[in-house]
Structure formats: structure tokens, C-alpha cells
Amino acid sequence: MRRKNYWLLFAILLLSLTALSQGQDLSQTPSGHEEEDDASLFPQPSTQERTSQSPIRVTVHLSDEDFKQLEELNHTYVTDTGATVELNNIPDADSYLQLTSALAVGEGPDVMLINSSWVRPMASRGYLLPVEFYTSNRADSDTINPLLQEVEWNGYQWGTPADMDPYVLAWNMKALNSLGVTDIPGGISSWKELLSKAKNRGHQQLLEISSGDGYDAAALMGALGTDPLSPSQASLEWIDKARAFMQIDQTEQGADGAQLPLTISAVSEAAKSQTANTELRMPEQLYAIYPSLLRSRSYAVSAGSQHAKEAAEWIAYMSSAVVQQEWYQATGKLPALKSLYDDTVFNPAGLPFHLNSLLQTAGTDKDTGRLQAKWDVFVKASGDYITGKSAAADYVEAVRGEAGGS
């Protein structure tokens, strides 16, 4: 009798163990191939760790106003996707040093929104991932080509252009017409005519130029149809004669400045004071040769990021046409996508002017680095020349004679 009970208990125990084993097998994921495939391309922590403990860390170099706008866009992204994103802004002047110091010791963020001119130096030091590594859906054909030049190095693309804030010429057409000029000057001859009419009418001031940062001087020379590093004699003579009609070193544009025929400033600043009488012009041909003058910013992924796939998704959202349009309307920074300037059907962004050369150029590396390589020299030399602290000959000697370009 006892023996039968033992066998009965043994049978019950065996059946229980079998059922438990089957139940455990059914609760497991059939395979981990999908996650393993992702991990082989983008080494990452587990999904649970990634979502609850390690958000996508994004560090940007923006003004306080632009950062607030980015926070709003990011809030929309987080709400729509359920992603966890940690934003950090470094508006300081030494932000490049702060970022590279963190990247050097493996403590950099996953994503950065930085000046495009920083991309090549960071890439050459091994701090960035090439775009080809973390995405296969790039819309290069829709990105303004000179902006791509800024983020290409060693045969790869290392950043995704986000926006640009080039210096433009804001023409007050009412003030210009008061001088007897009906059309915005194009060639140097029409610029000479403008100056002559200003003199004949006893005009005190013709244009406002802040001087000192280099971009305003480059924009003026580009509008005059000359290369800042190889200026024509005619353009230098015009600047010498026009200096008496320049409003220089004004920290703020007041009511008087707004009434001048011409103001040179960043497009985001020009947009703030734009009226029905204002027309904006950009020296596109010069900017196509020297893309650094476009003052663009780009998204980049750090080489040490463990969330490259998630970073790519965030960048794709932030660099989309819809978001770039919202960004322009909120900040005045111009989009990086060519399609937003195409108004053959309609202009979705409502941009203040048309682009031609920048959209058509295929881009070239022939001269792009020359101005950037001697930028500090150019800033000092152009500032001194515009303000009359140095002569034209001194300026030419400085920009042509310094090492860093030919």
C-alpha cells in the first residue's frame, strides 16, 4: 500500500514539473534576432535600461531664445513617440572647448547641435560617427549643397545641416527711392551711381554696418561683386568713398538706422525689423564659394553614443521639412532644405527672398577652406579697414599675405 502511494506521489510530482517547464517555455520571446541585429550595428544597453535609465542626451549650442523653441519641438517629439530625451544647452563662448573636452574622455552626449564649422575638426579627431553609419535614409538631394560641404570630410558626411543665419542686405525701398534710385544695385557701376546720388543729395548716411565680426564686411564685398580675399580695385575704391556715409559700430539699430537705405545684418535680425518697404538680398555667389559664411548649424552623433539608432530618429524629426519651416518662423534662421525655397507651386515657408546660386551649385572644395583658414586674420583686417583704421593696401596685404591660403 505504501509502495503504491509513493508511486502515485512520484507521478504527480513528475506531471507538475513537466507542466511548469512547458509554461516557462511559452512565456519566453521566440527569438532575440531583431534586437541582436540592431545591437550588432549599434551597440546599446538593453531596451529597459535605455528607456528608463539612459535617455538620449542632446547638447546644443544655442541662444536662450532658440533653446526655448527647441524645447517646444522636443516636447512634441517626446509626446508623439514616447522617447526620453534630455536636452542641455551650452551657450557659452567656450562651448567648443567644453564639448571636445567631454568627448575626449568619452563623456560626450549622444547628439549635438553645433556650428557646422566644428564638424570637420571633431570628425578628424574621432569624436563623431559618420552619418552613413546610423542612417540609410538621408535626403542629400534636398540639402543645399554648400551646407553639405561644411560637414563632409575624408569621403564621409559627419553631420546633418539644420539651419543657417547668413548676413544679408536689407534694403529700405522707400529710403532708396528718396535718393532717386529705383532698383537695388547689382554691378559695381550701379553701386557707384548710388553713392554719387547720395553725395549729390547731401545724404548724411547711406548704410549701417556693425563692423568687427567679419561677416558684415564679407557680405558687403560680396554684394559689390568681389572676393574678400582677392578684392577688386573698384570695390576698394567704393568702400573708401562710402566710408563717410556709413553708420558703424551701432550696438542696436534704432529708429534712425531703420530708415537708412541699407542695413547689413544676420537674416534672423533683419527679419525682426522687416516691413513692407524692406527687400532682402543675399550675396549668394560668394556664399557658394565660402560656405562658412552661411553661418550654418548641424546635428552630429558622437562616436561614443550607445543610442545611435534613437539619435538618428530624433535628428530625422528635427531636420524634417515641417520642423525646419516651424524653426524658421519662430527663430528667423533659414532652412537647410532646397525644397522649402521652391515656389514654383507654392512657398511653404514664406521665405523673404529667392535663392538661385546656392540651389544650383554642385559645390566644390576648391576654395571653401581658404577663408575659414585665415578667418581671424580676415576679421581683424576687415574691421580695421571698414572703420578707416587701416588703408586698402594694408587690408590687401593682410588677407593675401598670411599663411593658411593662397
From TrEMBL:
Region feature (Disordered): 24-54
Signal peptide bounds: 1-21
The organism's place on the tree of life at top rank: Bacteria
Bias (Polar residues) ranges: 43-54
Keyword Acyltransferase: no
GO MF annotations, alphabetized: maltose binding
Record's GO cellular component terms: ATP-binding cassette (ABC) transporter complex, substrate-binding subunit-containing
Key word Signal present: yes
InterPro entries: SBP
Record-level GO BP terms: maltodextrin transmembrane transport; maltose transport
Keywords in alphabetical order: Signal, Transport
Family that this chain belongs to: Belongs to the bacterial solute-binding protein 1 family.
Protein name: ABC transporter substrate-binding protein
